Amino acid sequence: xxxxxxxxxxxxxxxxxxxxxxxxxxxxxxxxxxxxxxxxxxxxxxxxxxxxxxxxxxxxxxxxx
Length: 65
What we know:
- By secondary structure, this protein is α/β, with parallel strands linked by helices.
- It has 2 helices and 3 strands, in the order βαβαβ.
- It has a 3-stranded parallel β-sheet with strand order 1-2-3, covered by helices on one side.
C-alpha cells in the first residue's frame, strides 16, 4: 500500500506479525526515498526504537509504556 498510495504520515508499530516495523522502514529507505520524515514509530521495545529513530523516514518515536 505504501508504494501505491501517497500518505502524509504513517503511524508504525515495530512489533507486527508478518513484516516488522524495521522491515517497513528499510523498504521505505530503499524503494521510496522521498518518504522522508513521515513515519511515527510506536514501540514498547526501546533498544529497537533507537535503531528506528536513526532511520531517515522516521520523524518521531513514541513509547507504549
